[in-house]
Amino acid sequence: MADAIKNNVGSFPHGKKITIVFVIGGPGSGKGTQCARIVKQFGFTHLSAGDLLREEVKTNTEQGTMIKNLMHEGKLVPSDVIVKLLLKAMLESGHDKFLIDGFPRNEENRQAYESIINIEPEFVLFIDCPKEEMERRILNRNQGRDDDNIDTIRRRFDVFQESTLPVIQYYEKTGKLKRVDGAKSADAVFEDVKAIFASLNTQAKQPSSMSRAQTNPFKRFLDLFCGCFGTQDARD
User: Fold this and answer.
1) Nearest residue to 112 (alpha-carbon basis) of 147, 58, 76, 63
2) 79, 109 contact by CB (below 8 A)
3) What is the pLDDT of residues 61-95, one digit of tens each?
């Protein structure tokens, strides 16, 4: 399946630096709001797995109908379908810095991503929000989405808890997880998010601030060696 997806969608040019950040959080945790602010301040391209799936539903294709039925039942869409949609959107954008919102939702998603796209995320932003707060937000937002009825919402909570917890634990063990308190106001959450992304920018700039002598051990040795002779000549 991975080979078929690669052949149908394509791949990034060899050697091109691609920066990816996953954004994970339960339904109503504020992922979309924070991603919009990150895009504006840090220049990332925002891709929402959920939005891509909903756009596919609108095509009225066989795949779109299948996705629609699964979403109505509160079930997860097959990982290969999601990864294919994500990769296609990334390639079509022409950009190289991506926020992938609402993904990976389970271990199957993560494994499919690694086998198909195989670009290690810089980190995983987890917006941690209590279930009661997420439910209140969804019921109040009135976006006209037909998957926002109370029964479906609660099924989505259950699926998120059961399926996404292993993903969160995996990235926590690898040191990639960055957790923020999603129960705060959107402004307060973004203050925490900004600190995380500012750190990423600082790390990216560090190599460019080093001279060739600093990054080449042999060159440092020659500089030190020659410097010693230069000091001796001055004394003589």
Assistant:
1) 76
2) yes
3) 998 999 999 988 878 789 999 998 999 999 999 99
